[in-house]
Amino acid sequence: MGPDSSQDAQTVSELGEFGLIHRVTSGRAQSSGTLLGPGDDAAVLAAPDGRVVTTTDLLVQNVHFRLDWSTPHQAGRKAIAVNLSDIAAMGAVPTGLLVGLGCPPDLPTSVVDELAAGMWEEARGVGVDIAGGDMVTATALTISVTALGDLQGRLPVIRSGASPGEVVAVAGRLGWAAAGWAVLGRGFRSPVAVVGAHRVPEPPYAAGPQAAAAGATSMVDVSDGLLADLDHIAEASGVGIDVRTDLLEIPQRLAEVASALGKDARHWVLTGGEDQALVATFSAGQPLPEGWTAIGSVIEGQGVTVDGADYGQEQGWQHWR
Ligand SMILES: Nc1ncnc2c1ncn2[C@@H]1O[C@H](COP(=O)(O)OP(=O)(O)O)[C@@H](O)[C@H]1O
Ligand SMILES: Cc1ncc(C[n+]2csc(CCOP(=O)(O)OP(=O)(O)O)c2C)c(N)n1
Ligand SMILES: [Mg+2]
Ligand SMILES: [Mg+2]
Ligand SMILES: [Mg+2]
Questions:
Q1: Which of 157, 163, 236, 321 is deepest in the core (most CB within 10 A)?
Q2: Ligand 1 centre from 26 Cα, in Å?
Q3: What is the CATH number of the domain that holds 213?
């Protein structure tokens, strides 16, 4: 249900700032990682190993989600998931979340209710609370999420740690959300397998800490596109990365959707973002952790190639283009 479908419902401006905050926060926080919050000037979270991993990603209506393509519940889950994914990409486990909501005055409170329910569902799935946040008026529905995490005594897995000779491996899905976005963009609502992937990603949260424990040398989550995000590792590490398409599985379902739309499934897999897969590098010869699949190698040089050749310009999502 979108804001347009409930014209006579109570709006956020009628309920007001503190009524709205009370409505989305009351009785919810319960994780042992939340020592205080929400309700005071700031929350207090536990920091088990003394270091805090923190990240923020902002979602804007009609840029990251559309309320005629996704329910508020799905948009809420996605907003939390993309942030938890960045925590996992450091090899960390989440400890808490903060949520800023920019709401147009005529937004029905039911939309905020559903959004909050989706956010809490995704947060509870990994055992953390939304420990605080902010509510403001805005011209477009805006969701700003900050996630905090803990390294459990390990070193963070950073973008600059890859060396030539290492194996590049992936955990999670590639190309599904891009396929769903293409389907929705053509005015279709199915197949639900791909449309659902656009609406709510399923990041392999546990694979991040598992890769870290297995000695991954670098890692990133795929938000913009596999090639675009691998390029961050290549640049930060001062190496080249070659992706091998004979190692990259093209799921049958994606191939079918692509052929129905006259699109290329391989292109979705290589450049589609928003499935929040994890890609990491591991030393050659070591067994990969469970759930990880080799897709290429780290080489001397710079940039990302596909089967040894440049892929061209479009390697993933870019804002303002
Ligand atoms: N406005 C900003 N101020 C400071 N740092 C920023 C800002 N925007 C992005 N960054 C930093 O730039 C890096 C790359 O950002 P981004 O591409 O959004 O990462 P990701 O794709 O992992 O979410 C991150 O370390 C992020 O914290
Ligand atoms: C309505 C709509 N249009 C386009 C997209 C596609 N899209 C929007 S943002 C994005 C990339 C990821 O977003 P970003 O804010 O760059 O996340 P980050 O890399 O910072 O994690 C993609 C593929 C979408 N999800 N929804
Ligand atoms: Mg970001
Ligand atoms: Mg991100
Ligand atoms: Mg990231």
A1: 157
A2: 31
A3: 3.90.650.10
* Ligand nearest to the CA of residue 318, numbered in listed order: 2
- Give the domain-ending residue among 116, 150, 184: 150
- Which ligand number lies closest to the CA of residue 273? 2
Looking at the fold, whether 137 and 263 belong to one and the same domain comes out as no
Q: Of 88, 123, 150, which residue constitutes the final position of a domain?
A: 150
265 CB-contact burial (10 Å; exposed 0-12 / middle 13-18 / buried 19+):
buried
Residue ranges with strand state E in 104-129: none
- Residues tagged in the binding site annotation for ATP: 133-134, 159, 223
Q: How many domains does the chain have?
A: 2
Which residue of 80, 83, 222, 223 sits with most ligand 1 atoms within 8 Å of its CB, as the best mutation to test the pocket?
223
Ligand 2 proximity of 318 Cβ (cutoff 6 Å):
no
Range of the domain at 262: 167-306
Closest C-alpha to ligand 1, atom 18: 57
The CATH number assigned to the domain holding 39 equals 3.30.1330.10
Instruction: Give per-residue pLDDT as tens, 41-91.
Output: 999 999 999 999 999 999 999 999 999 999 999 999 999 999 999 999 999
What span, in angstroms and rounded, lies between the C-alpha atoms of 17 and 165? 55
Instruction: List the structure tokens of 273.
Output: 């973002």
- Judged by average pLDDT, the poorest of 7-21, 248-262, 277-291 is 7-21
As to burial, measured by CB atoms within 10 angstroms (0-12 exposed, 13-18 middle, 19+ buried), residue 173 is buried
For the segment 16-41, what is each residue's pLDDT rounded down to a tens digit?
999 999 999 999 988 999 999 999 99
7 and 143 together in one domain: yes
